[in-house]
Amino acid sequence: MRTESVHDQVSTVGSRPDFRSIFDGELTFVWNSLRRFGVADRDLEDVAHEVFVVVSRRLGDYDPTRPMRPWLFAIAFRCASDYRRLARHRRETLAQDEVEPVDASEAVDEALSRAEERNLARRALLAVPEERRAVLVLHDFDETPMQEIADALGIPLKTAYSRLRIARTELIEAARRESPIKEGS
Fold first, then answer.
1. 131 and 76 inside one domain
2. Domain span at residue 31?
3. What are the pLDDT tens digits along the chain (185 aa)?
4. Phi, psi of 31, rounded to the nearest 5 degrees
5. CATH assignment at residue 114
6. CA–CA dist 137, 2 (Å, integer)
7. Overall number of domains in the chain
8. Measured between alpha carbons, how far is 185 from 146 in angstroms, rounded to an integer?
9. Apex CA 30: angle with CA 10 and CA 134, to 5°?
10. Which of the 8 DSSP states describes residue 38?
């Protein structure tokens, strides 16, 4: 469920939020958005930093009558795209399963199962092309209205709906391909 941020509340009033309040209130949102776009955990801090550098430069362009998150998401989307474009020249694989800390109170088999499920979901999400993944993440994960998504990404509303429909199909197909449990087993 989407929680309304301080900036959604501020933007309805119409006053321009300051950079510090945006950073403090939306860092987690930006961080999670970047992860969903395939930024490796080891690079999240650097790419998030780049997002907020862009935010500080473009804060004067922000329309405070509009919600903050779709605007931030569009910036994060572009920074993640730039990151991947540069990362293609590296020899390492960036979409590897990330190692996550294990809760000591959780049984080992439960922890492994949960980690496998997270990695499956992440691989399936990364299999969806980024233009469609952006719409899918904003709508289905962050519960952003379609008109705001279309505006933030600079696409027609019907295109946004089309991308969402195709992305959902691609996500399901990718999850089936990635799943170690095959149908009929």
1. no
2. 1-89
3. 444 444 444 444 467 789 999 999 999 999 999 998 888 888 999 999 999 999 999 999 898 888 899 999 999 999 998 898 885 535 444 444 444 555 556 677 787 878 788 888 888 998 999 899 999 999 998 899 999 999 988 999 999 999 999 999 999 999 999 887 655 54
4. -55, -50
5. 1.10.10.10
6. 12
7. 2
8. 39
9. 105
10. T
The structure tokens listed for 113 are: 């199962």
Distance in angstroms (rounded) separating the CA atoms of residues 105 and 46: 32
Q: What's the DSSP call for residue 64?
A: T
Contacts of 69 (CB under 8 A, 6+ apart): 5, 7, 8, 26, 29, 142, 144
Tokens of 27: 């860092």
Please give the torsion angle defined by the CA atoms of residues 132, 82, 76 and 166, in that order, rounded to the nearest 10 degrees.
0
Q: Sign of the CA dihedral 141, 58, 87, 47?
A: negative
Whose structure tokens read 């922000």? 62
Rg (CA), the chain: 18
**Contact 134/77 with Cβ under 8 angstroms?**
yes
Out of 54, 89, 124, pick the residue that ends a domain.
89
